Amino acid sequence: MEPNCAVNLIAKNPVFKEAGIRVGVLVGDDSSTIAAVQKETQVVEKWVDTNHNTKNFNNKLYLAAKKYTFLNHGVIKYLKRCFSYCIVQNKNNVPNGEWCKAKSNLNYIFKALPGGKPFQCAAWSTDLDVLLASQVAKAAQIAPGASSQQNESFNSMCAAKASKRMHYANSYAHHVRVSCAVNTKNLGSSHLCSI
């Protein structure tokens, strides 16, 4: 979401003010948006979008693969899966590391890693620690397991009903088309029969 749109929606929304609604949490991955909102209004907590965070983690692994040849597609897929499991299985539980089976079993076989053994490269261990430390630093924002998927789904519906390339914005048709997207999201496609 664009920072100015978020400020108008959250801090300057007349409907919210009239109803006494205060937004307490904003889910997303854009730091400029939360910074703009916090500048204009009361403290709004930021939660990290799980999908965006996992994609970002995955992209950093692929960047590291340029440096470490043993980080092939299968190994990266395995690390991403472990990372995702860690987040999902410890939802709302920030200081938790019990999901790791290898901690308690020294003979644990890592099925997706080369030779079934843990990584041996000290440089990679350091780089992985740095990557994971960046996740630990925002653990409280990641732990809720938040997602902006519903917003993205609604944006897609609006784009399908009121395409930018057709420029409906200057006509009454735009209002009707966006309203149709809202009804589709809230009521399903059954509302189309009553139009």
Plain-language structure description:
This protein is mainly α and 195 residues long. The protein folds into three domains: 1-48, no CATH class; 50-142; 158-195, no CATH class. The protein has nine helices and two strands; from the N terminus they run ααβαβαααααα.
Q: What's the assembly state of these chains?
A: single chain
- The strand count comes to 2
Mean pLDDT: 82
Globally, the shape reads: elongated
What secondary-structure arrangement, pairings included, does this model have?
Blueprint (H helix, E strand, L loop, with lengths): L2 H8 L3 H6 L5 E4 L2 H10 L4 E4 L1 H16 L7 H17 L32 H16 L1 H4 L6 H13 L10 H16 L8
Parallel strand pairs: 1-2
Helix pairs in contact: 1-3, 4-5, 8-9
Organism: Gryllus longicercus
Protein name: Mutator-like transposase domain-containing protein
InterPro entries: Mutator_transp_dom (IPR049012)
Features of the shown structure:
195 residues, mainly alpha, 3 domains, Mutator-like transposase domain-containing protein
Summarize the structure.
The chain is mainly alpha-helical and 195 residues long. It has 9 helices and 2 strands.
